[in-house]
Amino acid sequence: MTFPDHATVGNTGGGQRILARPDGATIAYHRLEGASPGIVFLGGYRSDMAGTKALFLDDYCRRRGRAYLRFDYFAHGASSGDFALGTIGRWRDDAIAVIDSLTEGPQILVGSSMGGWIMLLAALARPARIAGLVGIAAAPDFTRELLPVRLSPEQRRELDERGAIVLPSDYDPAGYPYTKALVEDGNRHLLLGAPIPIEVPVRLLHGLADASVPWQLSLRLAERLTGRDVALTLVKDGDHRLSTPADLARLAQTLDALCATAAAVRGRG
Description:
This protein is of the alpha/beta class. The chain has one domain: 3-Layer(aba) Sandwich (Rossmann fold), CATH 3.40.50.1820. Helices cover about 35% and strands about 25% of the residues. It contains eight helices and eleven strands. The strands form two sheets. It has a nine-stranded mixed beta sheet, with helices on both faces. A hairpin with a 5-residue loop joins strand 2 and strand 3 (about 25-30). Helix 2 (about 90-100) packs across helix 3 (about 115-125). The protein is globular and about 55 Å long. The two termini are about 20 Å apart. The relative contact order is 0.13.
């Protein structure tokens, strides 16, 4: 399996490489070559490709000889960029760029939290390249569905007047920044208000104890997807991260089944 050399700008060590974007920004990524369908991991808001699930999937794919790609969005992790300039559209374009430049053949996208939204947008943009989707506590439309209801009137005014706000986070003592540009751009990429024309198999995993993204959002997503092969698994006591050993074993089983289905479809083709 080969990939276009012009897409990379060197090796930064430890297997990490860089994809250059037309505007001069760089996307850091790790890639494994292997069997098809490949797996692409799409992380959550402010997370990076060194997280628990991203590394678990690296090991999972190594053991099975399967192609795998993990990367950092613009202004995340080892990639370049000012986080204040990050938007849903920008991160969607990053996902499409890595799929186009760094993968071959059918791919299964695994999207965690915000990555579940990016996963859907990428699948809509590249339907011929997608063999399946796995959403882990998927958070489509969070700029409208989740963020506004968590803001006090004072915080909403600060966001509107100053253009940015920092909110407390369980995952970072410094809190998470949110910008007015993020919200406005996100609202141009909303999905839950209409049928979502994705026909590939979709598996949604969500914890009933998720304090960040309510499980009902995954239920609404399942209802909106037009494909018939859509399944939602609710995990009792499961939190937002779904990264315990039992959670990761469930993810592996889910991917094993999806990969087998994709291989069977290719065989019939």
